[in-house]
Design a protein that fits this description.
This protein has about 120 residues and is of the alpha+beta class. It has a domain of about 80 residues: hypothetical protein PF0899 fold (2-Layer Sandwich), CATH 3.30.2320.50. Helix content is about 25%, strand content about 30%. It contains two helices and six strands, in the order αβαβββββ. A three-stranded mixed beta sheet has the order 2-1-6. Strands 4-3-5 form a three-stranded antiparallel beta sheet, with no helix packed on it. Helix 1 crosses helix 2. The chain is elongated, with a radius of gyration of 17 Å. The two termini are about 35 Å apart. The site of zinc ion has 8 residues, from loops.
Length: about 120
C-alpha cells in the first residue's frame, strides 16, 4: 500500500526531529499535498492512523494542506490555475498546460511539538 509507506516515512522524519529536540512529543504533522502527487488525501489519513497505532505518535495529528495546481501558461505568460486534473487547461485562455509549477507537492512543511 503506497500511502502506508508514505505515512511511515513521515513518521520517521518526525521521530528523528523529535529526538533531535530531546524527545519532545509531536502534536501534529503538517503536510502540503498537491493533486498531482498521486496520493489520495483520505487514503493517506487512514494510513497515517494505522501507522501511528501503538507508537509514540498515537495522539499525533496529520494536518493536510491541499495545494492547488498552478501552471505557467505560455499564452498568458503568467502563472495560472487549471480547470481540473482532468481538464488540464489554463482557466483564462483554455490553452493546454504543460509547465507545472505547483501541484506535485508531498512535503512535510512543519511539525507542532509539545514543550
Ligand atoms: Zn492562459
Amino acid at each position: 500500500m503506497h500511502e502506508l509507506s508514505i505515512a511511515m516515512s513521515l513518521l520517521d522524519v518526525a521521530e528523528e526531529e523529535a529526538e533531535r529536540r530531546g524527545g519532545v512529543r509531536v502534536e501534529a504533522l503538517y503536510l502540503k499535498l498537491g493533486p498531482l502527487s498521486g496520493v489520495v488525501k483520505e487514503a493517506l489519513l487512514s494510513a497515517f492512523e494505522l501507522a501511528c497505532e501503538q507508537t509514540q505518535f498515537a495522539t499525533s495529528r496529520l494536518i493536510i494542506e491541499e495545494v492547488p495546481i498552478v501552471v505557467f501558461c505560455q499564452k498568458c505568460q503568467a502563472e495560472r490555475n487549471v480547470h481540473s486534473v482532468q481538464e488540464f487547461c489554463c482557466v483564462e485562455c483554455d490553452t493546454p498546460a504543460s509547465d507545472v509549477l505547483h501541484g506535485r507537492e508531498l512535503l512535510l512543511s512543519a511539525l507542532e511539538l509539545a514543550e
